[in-house]
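=== RUN LOG ===
request id: a7f3
mode: sequence -> structure
chains: 1
length: 272
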Amino acid sequence: MICSNCSHKNDGGRFCENCGSPLTQGGGQEAAVAMENASASPTTSGQSNKYIESTKNISKMYFGYFMQVIKKPYASAQAVGAEHFINGLITIVLYSFIIPLMFYFALKGILADMNSFSSGLFGEELQINPPFADVVIKPAFAYAIFIMLVAVFSFAAIKLGRINASFQEVVARFGSFLIPFVALLAIALIMSILKIKLFLLFLFLGFVGSIFMVPPLVIASYKKSSEEGVDVIYGSLITYILTFVAIAIMGDMLFNTLKDAFSDIFGLFGGL
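=== RESULT ===
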């Protein structure tokens, strides 16, 4: 039993062995609960602060890494190893979310204009907003799977070239070469928010570049000093073929959610 006066732990009895205060069952339980809460609270708080600090450090490190690759993309990316695997995954996640976010804001701008038009035509605003889950979340998972498949295809081509490279290393380097195209997509995202129609050009350059330029650059960065195995050109062709097969199979996942969102929204106008 714990003394409510001095918090001394007693084996039993009616009085505290340390200070002599009367011991009560309720007081002991309250003191025990207080001590448990006092001991648990700093631990929980410390864990939360640890996670926050860790997230901040990762963000700072990734930003520095991102800016370094932007300054000298090829020189920086070809020197990347497995130690940047997490950075490669972060880049892939950014790539996966930027594209659907772009469509979301572009669609939101179109619907805002339609809402204004309906207000002038019918005397009231419809207040139609694009469904965030259907336009952003679901396609983001599809784009993440797709771009990871392209990285896997690049890894397979490198292995066919008889290069001793780990999957983590290839993904890290793939993510580094992907950064300039993520930057183009980020510019397109900002333009879509500002309703600048030129965002479609940057979207095209970022998306097509990520498919047609990144794989051969990754393969060439490993094959530049080796003549064994599959040549860079044939490895790139194999990667392109597999990528187009993936697009054909995943076309519904990549684009149908967007088409469904458009059809649901415009169906509301059709019912007016």
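=== NOTES ===
Residues 1-71 form one domain.
Residues 26-35, 268-272 have pLDDT under 50 and may be disordered.
=== END ===
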